[in-house]
Specification:
Elements (H helix, E strand, L loop, with lengths): L3 H7 L15 H11 L2 E3 L11 E3 L1 H20 L4 E4 L8 H5 L2 H4 L1 E6 L6 E3 L11 H4 L4 H5 L14 E4 L2 E4 L9 E4 L4 H6 L1 H8 L5 E10 L14 E11 L3 H20 L7 E5 L11 E9 L2 E12 L1 H10 L5 E3 L4 E3 L2 E8 H12 E6 L2 E6 L10 E5 L5 H15 L4 E3 L5 H10 L4 E5 L1 H6 L1 E6 L5 E5 L3 H14 L1
Parallel strand pairs: 3-9, 19-20, 19-21
Antiparallel strand pairs: 1-2, 4-5, 4-6, 7-8, 9-10, 10-16, 11-12, 12-13, 13-16, 14-15, 17-18, 21-22, 22-23
Helix pairs in contact: 3-12
Bound molecules: adenosine-5'-triphosphate.
The site of adenosine-5'-triphosphate (ATP) has 16 residues, from strand 10, strand 13, strand 16 and helix 12.
């Protein structure tokens, strides 16, 4: 739901400038992902399962690197933030107290003839409705909305709860129902006291977590943009109530936008969008989305929320446990407020993939490359023989690769001519290629080729690992 007024507040030019997407069609990314082994449809041999995707050999490297980059920025480089890995299954009372059982729902409409179901705010003509409109039972009639599939009549909207359920233990009855967590945040709140006591942190401090979440989305789609099983990267920052929370919010919002830029997303394809008051989630005092210009429009990449004391208060009340913080300096007891940064690991991975895509003409041929930040690239280096018929060349390649592999992901390939081998590595984002040729056997030097500039340089074999590690260090610093 777009609120131009709110956008204008945060970024006066946001509405005027549309940089356009990095790729005109999503299909380009979907087919590259499948062809090169980044992302596959889940259970494909059985026809797939809607909105679940599997990461192939290159995809898992990319996504792990995205998660590592997030962890580095959010935990490793920060003294006041610690990590957590809570269970996917939690006591069912958690979801009652958090408000999810009561109100974690989307407005659903159903076609009377074809029985297809849609999320109301994703129907053509209803994308910009306010929350008040979305809750209006007469809205379908008022706007004359029809089924996009067969033009059939649509039902009035009803709320559809997005939580997936399963049974815990051998008896499948009501009492055994548990939920697959729809967000990782609650695992952090219920561990707030454990973490604070064991890590001896004083506010402001944060707890970060990466993990799976599940949502029975009504209309999933756009590849891995909206899935039913996905991963979140969330950080909850505990602060003094009121002003301190507002100030922490204003610090975290630009930091989170800067993170995407640090790892290579084009700044013009990022913008901020503030939620209108009637759009705010039940827990939120303020919410701003970091949005990315996807091929299918500006969409949420991450949410930054001021959640007040909603979560800890609710859990204190429902559990009967004291979740207050004692500030020894002021001798006050209070429930901290929370500023949350909530990102999707899959959505971020997808964004880095889309934004890195390049096509250019090189000597009459189209060169496709992924200009991924080297930290995110699945392989950091490929070692390639110019002549695979010469055993000494192949042997030297393997020695160089084995040495590199102790520190970074490295790959050897000899299944095509050197030109093709370079193109293949360009297409999967490998930042550097090392080529061993006949001269290497004489002069003990090899060629290092840069993915983006295609520049080539001769370096001694003994200096290959240092050259790669120095280049990685340079991009990490800068
Ligand atoms: P939307 O309005 O798109 O449904 P949301 O506002 O419900 O998203 P949050 O609950 O704030 O999303 O979730 C935080 C982040 O988790 C999102 O910014 C997104 O990156 C990720 N995320 C949420 N739902 C999905 C999903 N179904 N598939 C993939 N990632 C998701």
């Amino acid at each position: 739901m777009t609120d131009p007024a709110a956008n204008a507040d945060l970024d006066p030019l946001a509405e005027e400038r549309d940089p356009g997407p990095a790729v005109p069609s999503l299909e380009t990314i979907v087919s590259l992902s499948k062809r090169r082994g980044f992302i596959f449809s889940s259970s494909e041999i059985y026809g797939g399962i809607n909105a679940v995707w599997d990461y192939g050999p290159l995809g898992v490297e990319l996504k792990n690197n995205v998660k590592r980059a997030w962890w580095r920025t959010m935990v490793q480089e920060r003294d006041e933030i610690v990590g957590l890995d809570a269970g996917i299954l939690m006591a069912p009372q958690v979801w009652v107290a958090s408000g999810h059982v009561g109100s974690f729902s989307d407005p659903l409409v159903e076609c009377a003839t074809c029985r297809r179901r849609y999320r109301l705010d994703e129907l053509p003509g209803a994308e910009s409705l306010s929350a008040t409109d979305l809750a209006d039972p007469g809205i379908v009639e008022r706007l004359g909305l029809r089924c996009p599939n067969d033009d059939g009549p649509l039902s009035p909207p009803r709320r559809f709860n997005l939580m997936l359920k399963t049974f815990l233990g051998p008896v499948e009855d009501e009492a055994a129902i548990v939920y697959l967590r729809p967000e990782t945040a609650q695992g952090i709140y219920v561990n707030f006291r454990n973490v604070r006591e064991t890590s001896r942190k004083k506010i402001p401090f944060g707890i970060a977590q990466i993990g799976k979440a599940f949502r029975n989305e009504i209309s999933p789609g756009n590849f891995v943009f909206r899935m039913r099983e996905f991963e979140q990267m969330e950080m909850q920052y505990f602060v003094r109530p009121g002003e301190a929370a507002a100030a922490a919010f204003e610090e975290w919002l630009p930091r989170r936008r800067a993170w995407y830029e640090r790892y290579g997303v084009t700044p013009a394809r990022l913008r901020l969008r503030e939620h209108a008051p009637d759009e705010l989630a039940h827990y939120a005092k303020k919410a701003v989305d970091v949005e990315y210009r996807f091929p299918f429009g500006w969409k949420e990449l991450e949410g930054v929320h001021n959640r007040g004391d909603f979560d800890l208060s609710r859990h204190q009340e429902a559990s009967g446990e004291n979740l207050e913080y004692f500030d020894p300096a002021t001798e006050e007891h209070f429930i901290p407020w929370v500023v949350e940064t909530s990102a999707g690991a899959d959505r971020a991975t997808f964004t880095f993939l889309i934004d890195a895509y390049r096509e250019e003409e090189v000597r009459g041929e189209t060169r496709v490359s992924l200009a991924l930040h080297p930290e995110l690239a699945p392989y950091k280096v490929a070692v390639l023989p110019l002549l695979k018929k010469r055993p000494e060349i192949v042997e030297l390649c393997h020695r160089i690769k084995a040495d590199l592999q102790r520190d970074v992901m490295a790959v050897y390939d000899d299944t095509a001519s050197i030109g093709k081998l370079y193109r293949r590595q360009d297409e999967i984002g490998t930042p550097w290629c090392i080529t061993v040729d006949v001269d290497s056997l004489e002069d003990g030097a090899v060629t290092i080729r840069d993915r983006d500039s295609m520049a080539q340089e001769r370096i001694p074999v003994a200096g290959v690992k240092r050259a790669i590690l120095d280049r990685l260090e340079a991009v990490r610093a800068g």
